[in-house]
Amino acid sequence: MQHKTSTDNLKAMDVVILIGGKGTRLKDVINDRPKPMAEINGRPFLDILIEYVASFGFCRFILCSGYMSDFISRYYEKQETSYSIIISKEKEPLGTGGAVKNAECYIKSDPFLVMNGDSFCLVNLEDFVGFHIEKKADLSLSLASIDNAADYGTVKINQENCIESFVEKGISSAGYINAGVYIFNKSILEKMPSEKAFSLENDLFPQLAGKSFYGYETGGEIIDIGTPERYRKAQQAIKKMLRS
Predict the structure, then answer these.
(1) Exposure pattern of 147-173 as b/e (b: 16+ CB <10 Å)?
(2) How far apart are CA 227 and CA 25, in angstroms?
C-alpha cells in the first residue's frame, strides 16, 4: 500500500542528522575526521546520505555534531549546494536523544525527520512521511526485516503497525530492527529532558511503546560504517545500491 504526500510537505520538513559520536571502533581505519566523514568511493559518507535524502525534495538539514565538529563546519562552509546546512553543536556528549533536544531551537517544521549519520538504508522517504501522516502518529520509526536480529534487538508491532515493545539484543531470530530513520512530531520534544545526555533508542522509545508510535516497514538493507569490517562492506554495498 502506497502512502502519498506532497512534494511541498517534503520541502518544508527539516532533516536532523545525528553525527556527534566519536566513532571509537573505527579509529584504527579513520582517525583524522569524524566517522560520518569517512570516505566511501572518494566522497564523505555524510555527503552521500544527504544527497540521497535531498533527492526526495528535502532541502534543510540540521547536523547534530559533537566530536570534531569544526571539521564538519569547515567542510560544509566550502560546499555549494541546492540545500541549506545548519550545524547544531554539542558542548559535551549528549547521546542521540540529547542531541535532538539540543537542536530544538533550529527545528522549524512539524513534523521533522531524524536519522543516524553513520548508517544508510534505502527508505522511501516520501512514502514514509505519507505513512506518518496517515497514521496520525506522534512518532514513526523505520523498520528493516532481517533473518538474525541477535546483534540488534527487535521491534514488536501489532497489525496496525503500532509499536508494542522493544526486545533487547541476544535473541537469534528473524524480526524487525530499527533502521535508524524517524519522523517526530514537535510534541515529542516536550517529553525530552533539556541539557541532559540520553538515548533515543534506550531511554525514549521504550517509554513511548504502545502509544501513538508506529513502525514503518521498509525492504531496504541497512548499511552502517561503525566498525572497520562494516566500513569495508559499506564501500561496495553503497556503490551497488546507488547504481541499482
Answers:
(1) eebeebbbbebeeebbbeebbeeeeee
(2) 5
| CA-based torsion, 53, 58, 59, 65: positive or negative | negative
The per-residue pLDDT for range 87-128, each reduced to its tens digit, is 999 989 999 999 999 999 999 999 999 999 988 888 999 999
| CATH 1.10.287.110 describes domain 7-143+176-243 | no
Q: Which residues contact 21 (CB under 8 A, 6 or more apart)?
A: 34, 35, 66, 67, 118
- The three-state secondary structure class of 34 is coil
Instruction: State how far the Cα of 230 lies from the Cα of 217, in Å rounded to an integer.
Output: 23
What percent of the chain has a predicted confidence (pLDDT) above 70?
Answer: 92
What interhelical angle do 228-243 and 45-54 show, nearest 10? 30
Q: Comparing C-alpha atoms, which of 25, 67, 58, 30 is closest to residue 45?
A: 30
Contact residues for 156 (Cβ-Cβ < 8 A; gap 6+): 163, 164, 165, 166, 167, 175, 176
Residue 185 belongs to what H/E stretch?
none
Sign of CA dihedral 50, 120, 34, 87: positive
Pair type for strands 175-184 and 213-218? unpaired
Non-local (6+) Cβ contacts of 124 within 8 A are 218
Secondary structure (3-state) at 204: helix
